[in-house]
Task: inverse folding
């Protein structure tokens, strides 16, 4: 089951580690996200590919190999 929440500017949400999620902008303006993590070693796993990489690595920014 997929949950969907509409957030307004200034709202906050929390997603526990290990929960697949995504954010998308349904408006015409720029969406900005302020990320807060519980540690320094942060990775992302893309659910469609299963590949994991470091947050803010070259791959996370749109290029570079995965590890």
Result:
């Amino acid at each position: 089951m997929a949950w969907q929440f509409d957030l307004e500017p200034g709202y906050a949400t929390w997603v526990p580690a290990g929960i697949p999620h995504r954010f998308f902008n349904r408006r015409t303006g720029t969406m900005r996200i302020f990320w807060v993590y519980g540690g320094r070693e942060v990775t992302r796993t893309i659910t469609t590919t299963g590949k994991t990489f470091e947050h803010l690595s070259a791959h996370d920014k749109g290029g570079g190999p995965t590890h």
